[in-house]
Amino acid sequence: MSRWEDYDKYISSSPVWAEKREARKEIDGHKCRTCHHDGSEDRLEVHHAHYDSFKNEDVENDLITLCSRCHDAITNVFRHKKYEERGI
Fold first, then answer.
1. Any idea what DSSP says for residue 44?
2. Which residues, listed in sequence order, are joined to residue 45 by a DSSP beta bridge?
3. Which pTM was predicted?
4. Bridge partners of 63?
5. pLDDT of 6-41, one tens digit each?
6. Which pLDDT value is given to residue 41?
7. How far is CA 34 from CA 25, 52, 74, 85, in A?
8. What is the CA radius of gyration of the chain?
9. What's the angle, vertex CA 58, arms to CA 31 and CA 44, rounded to 5?
10. How far is CA 79 from CA 2, 10, 11, 76, 88, in A?
11. Alpha helices, DSSP H only, in 1-88?
12. pLDDT tens, 59-86?
């Protein structure tokens, strides 16, 4: 199984992830930590701040609630930076 297949399986079907995701949303008051939308305009998602502790995430320190727009924007910034560092 590839790294991304493992990621997709974990995010889509792990009861442990579902519990962590809901716990993080609760901590953040069911609002995006960036723009403070409550998910009524864009779906709320939980973002990994890093993948060092993937599958062993600390809900308090490794995760953050974002609306889908902010999640896409942040992910795109990180991807751009990663590709820039590789000279792509």
1. E
2. 66
3. 0.83
4. 48
5. 999 999 999 999 999 999 999 999 999 999 988 777
6. 73
7. 13, 22, 10, 26
8. 14
9. 20
10. 19, 21, 19, 5, 11
11. 3-13, 15-27, 59-62, 68-86
12. 999 999 999 999 999 988 888 777 777 6
